Amino acid sequence: MKIYELMENISYTLIKGDLDTKINKIAYDHRKIKPGDLFVCIEGFSQDGHKYIEAAVENGAVAILCSKKPDVTPDCTILMVEDSRAALARIAAKFYNHPEKTLKIIGITGTNGKTTTTYMIKSVLERVGYKVGLVGTIANYIGNRKLHTERTTPESLELMELFHEMVVEGVEYCVMEVSSHSLYLKRVEGIEFTAGIFTNLTQDHLDFHKTFENYYEAKKILFTTSKLSVINIDDSYGKRLVQEIAAPKLNYGKSMDAEIRAVNINSHSRGIGYELHFRDKVQIIELPLPGEYNVYNSMACAAVCISQGIALTDIAKGLSEVVVPGRCELVSTKYGLDYDIILDYAHSPDALENILKSAREFTKGRLIAVFGCGGDRDATKRPIMGKIGTELSDIAVITSDNPRTEEPNAIIEEIIKGISKDNYIVEPDRKKAIAMAIKMAQSSDVIIIAGKGHEDYQVLKSGKIHFDEREVVDDILKEL
Questions:
Q1: Which residues lie across from 226 on neighbouring strands?
Q2: Which SS3 state, helix, strand or coil, does residue 405 take?
Q3: Among residues 368, 461, 465, which one has the least CA distance to residue 423?
Q4: CB atoms within 10 A of CB 350
């Protein structure tokens, strides 16, 4: 494809070179540049792509797309745009022949519930015969083919490449998590979503967004480009969003004025059931996932699927079959234990509160919580999580999550600042902490191991190590 074709409908200044130049591929990492490629300079938070223009040309770049005039002007085509992130998203879509226009794309944003809701929607859509793609935290999928993922929402270039693969393989719907980072950083620039879902908004990512208002405004971007907005009106920010979005809307919740409502909720350790009310229809829903927050996730799923013409009976069947790795995942069933061990990804105050409150509903004995907080992330939530973890459990084992470059003990000290009860134990070594919880468990107890869920690694100062909590639990139980 030639440069002038890529740059259609994009405002730019030609600093040097020929717009008739043919481009083989696009890259924003100079190390991935090969002869004939276009290098897009992105100003990141730790690196500035403009510093690598010469290196990119040495690797074979025949064109440079930048957002500020380069210090040097090598012998190639150079174009300048106002926003290179937005331009990257636009030219990536053009390069891959606009796969986003072929797919029906359902985007989900919110602090909690994104991952589970994507799996629920995928399950229902597949139940009625669609081939579905999924983009998210745990993995990306093209139908049943699982692909590795680096971040919740890929950079726009990789996202368009993934969409292209989906189209080639006959995918009709793509269900994707849309993070606040991706919205703010324009990774989904130019995509018109068939539907956008707002799950909730609670404290997270303030290290990036700085204020709650910024966080909300980033989330809100999704609904300016969605044909239909599906909104949780039991959330205060959801109520606000309903007022601020002009596009067609469908809301859900437990409140009487919700269009899609959950009534007569019945929770147990193996799942949760309720009546789904929509207009004059009532459908019994049985979820294999415990926790009242999963009622909200399933209502979001139901709302989108209803908008796509899917029958309530098919929605119920799809929801009854959903499996979500690391989300309220019961891992102790094969051992015939008289207590339960549950893994959950909860790593924010609200998510930890949700899983512990849900577990309390079906815990007949003691509730034991194992949790920590990640390093190099929002530190203000640490004492909050300390308070929640100890107030809502009978015994808390405070440990490491992904400490990254921080000292684990320093993170734990900040967690402890929020604690007023004397019902906790500190064990920085996460495997030892899990072992402590298991060894103290008695009949009818429930152990919640929170923070990592689907992750099979731990990030330490020395680097990433293999750490799969399913294997850790297996090893400990075998020893016992």
A1: 193
A2: coil
A3: 368
A4: 20
Per residue, the 3-state secondary structure of 284-302, as one string, reads EEEECCCCCHHHHHHHHHH
Q: Which residues lie below 8 Å from residue 251, measured CB to CB, with a gap of 6+? A: 230, 231, 232, 233, 238, 242, 258, 259, 260, 303
Q: What number is the average pLDDT over the span 236-251?
A: 94
Q: Which residue has the tokens 């998510």?
A: 351
pLDDT one-digit tens code per residue, 326-356 = 988 889 878 889 999 999 999 999 889 989 9
Q: Give the whole-angstrom CA distance, residue 7 versus residue 377.
A: 37
- Of 462, 445, 350, 444, the C-alpha closest to 404 is 462
Average pLDDT, the chain: 94
d(C-alpha 269, C-alpha 429), whole Å: 28
Q: Are strands 281-287 and 329-330 parallel, antiparallel or unpaired?
A: unpaired
**Residue that wins the pLDDT comparison between 155 and 330:** 155
Strands across the sheet containing 446-450: 329-330, 340-344, 446-450, 367-371, 395-398, 424-426
Q: Residue-wise over 388-423: b if at least 16 C-beta within 10 A, else e?
A: bbbebbebbbbbbbbbbebebeebbebbeebbeeee
Please give the order of strands across the beta sheet that includes 13-16.
13-16, 77-80, 63-66, 38-40, 26-27
Query: Is residue 387 in a domain?
Result: yes
The rounded distance, in Å, linking the Cα atoms of 415 and 419 is 7
H or E stretch covering 120: helix 114-127
Q: Which two structure tokens, joined as six digits, stand for 239?
A: 């109520």
Domain boundary residue among 35, 55, 85? Answer: 85
**Alpha carbon distance 250, 258 (integer Å):** 9
| 267 in the same domain as 147 | yes
Q: How far is residue 8 from each of residues 5, 20, 82, 163, 213, measured CA to CA in Å?
A: 6, 13, 15, 21, 35
Distance CA 144, CA 451 (A): 27
Question: What confidence score (pLDDT) does residue 180 get?
Answer: 85
Q: How many folded domains does the chain comprise?
A: 3
Quick one: 8 and 55 in the same domain?
yes
In this structure, are 37 and 54 located in the same domain?
yes
Residue 192 DSSP one-character state: P
Q: Which two tokens stand for residue 469?
A: 């909590």
With beta carbons less than 8 A apart as the criterion, state whether 145 and 165 touch.
no
Asked whether 433 and 460 are in contact (CB, 8 A), the reply is no
pLDDT tens for residues 368-412?
999 999 999 989 999 999 999 999 999 999 999 999 999 999 999
**Quick one: 258 and 396 in the same domain?**
no
